[in-house]
Specification:
Layout (H helix, E strand, L loop, with lengths): L1 H8 L6 H15 L3 H13 L12 E8 L7 E12 L3 E12 L2 E12 L6 E4 L10 E5 L10 E5 L6 E5 L2 H18 L14 E2 L3 H6 L11
Antiparallel strand pairs: 1-2, 1-8, 1-9, 2-3, 3-4, 4-5, 6-7, 7-8
């Protein structure tokens, strides 16, 4: 229950559509069985989440699955940096580069961890269509470099949802079927709140061919 109350407090809707999604969450919290409903929703979201290693989240990410009804950008590359950490809290900066029409778009977001429990990590992308934070619901195991190789991020009603990957080709060959199965099985592909706008598997071939400078940055600029 506290999770959803905290989540709603983190959202800043800017239009009617976004307000409607928050209204749905408010209705859940006002239900006479709100505690049980919220607990069930949270279990449904987080059953696959372990206690994530924060250092394994940092670095460069490619968006390989996205919600096109919310995000119109392509060739999205994100750089996540941890700037502060204590026992049960942490702060991150998030810089996202993308193509929008013929322009390069740069957005600045943030991340935070509050508390020891799974589901306590939130990321704000800085995208104008993302007034609410994302949180991880599934990840790959850590690789030999101590990094996660993919990360599934979603919002409280399973829409919008994104999948981030370290390496585009390795993700498809090593994890593509696993992620497709997960998204289909647990209702992320076309949830009710997506308004019949399913997830999109990004065609990253043209992004690699474009050779955008921001895909090869060693550090956030």
């Amino acid at each position: 229950m506290r999770f959803f109350e905290s989540y709603i407090a983190s959202c800043k809707p800017t239009d009617t559509r976004e307000s409607q999604l928050l209204d749905q969450l408010q209705q859940v919290l006002q239900n006479v069985n709100a505690e049980q409903i919220a607990e069930k929703m949270q279990r449904n979201l987080y059953f696959a989440v372990d206690d994530l290693e924060l250092d394994g989240l940092t670095g460069k990410w490619h968006t390989v699955v996205d919600s096109p009804s919310v995000h119109g950008e392509r060739c999205v590359v994100s750089y996540l940096e941890k700037i502060e950490e204590s026992r049960f809290s942490a702060l991150f900066t998030l810089t996202q580069y993308s193509r929008h029409n013929e322009d390069v778009r740069i957005m600045h977001g943030s991340g935070r961890k509050t508390g020891p429990d799974p589901g306590s990590i939130f990321f704000l992308t800085g995208h104008p269509a993302d007034p609410c934070p994302y949180f991880p619901v599934k990840s790959s195991p850590l690789n030999q470099q101590g990094q996660y190789e993919y990360l599934i991020l979603t919002q409280a009603l399973k829409h919008p949802t994104m999948v981030l990957a370290r390496d585009i080709w390795e993700f498809e060959t090593k994890y593509g079927n696993e992620v497709r199965d997960y998204l289909n099985r647990y209702g992320y592909i076309n949830p009710i709140t997506s308004l019949n706008s399913p997830l999109l598997w990004v065609n990253n071939t043209r992004c690699i061919q474009a050779n955008d400078y921001f895909a090869d940055l060693d550090e956030v600029v």
